[in-house]
UniProtKB/TrEMBL annotation:
Domain Transcription regulator PadR N-terminal: 8-81
Name of the protein in its database record: PadR family transcriptional regulator
Source superkingdom: Bacteria
Coiled coil stretches, renumbered: none
Matches recorded under SUPFAM superfamilies: Winged helix' DNA-binding domain (SSF46785)
Entries under InterPro entries matching the protein: Metal_resp_DNA-bind_regulator, Tscrpt_reg_PadR_N, WH-like_DNA-bd_sf, WH_DNA-bd_sf
Amino acid sequence: MSTTRLLLLGVVRIFQPAYGYQLRRELLTWNVEAWANVNPGSIYTGLRTLAKHGYLQELAQDGAHRPGRTSYKLTADGETEYFSLLRGMLWTVDGFHPDKMQATISFMWSLRRDEVIAALEARISQLESWLKAEPYSERHILEDPATPNHVVEMFRITSARDGGELRWTREFLDRIRAGAYAFAGETADWEPYPGMVTHWGEIPDAPPTP
């Protein structure tokens, strides 16, 4: 749920005010249903839930709340929640939920470069600690007569994932230290093409009726 919440708040923050139909279409171009396990049909529900909890403001067209035709923008609480989620996912490694780092990469540019560097350094330390401890977890399983030996492969696949993320994080950190990408307070390294700007300023057609 935290990944979905960050994705919804983040995409609203980029395009606000934006209609629910446009936000759903944008997120689907990110293939969120594949890597973040976001059900496309739940996006409208998620937006309404965030509005109910005070994180988004609903701007209904002609006073009528219709799926896809209500536009949204972040409230002050939504801005606070966005950065809280973003920082929590960036600073903390969660090997069983790689979607959290995937979502973080999508919005990392809204933080300053020095914080991203510090967070990646912290992630490297966490991963190094986990990898150092994993051989002892393996030994415990192999020496425990009550645990089937094949269970050790669960730790080995986790170790392989952690090792891969550690290598990527070190390389990513080197690229950022060398000046790659643009972060908060810096000149943007990408601008939307004019057609995209026009697209986000248009009222979308109503979603087709099933």
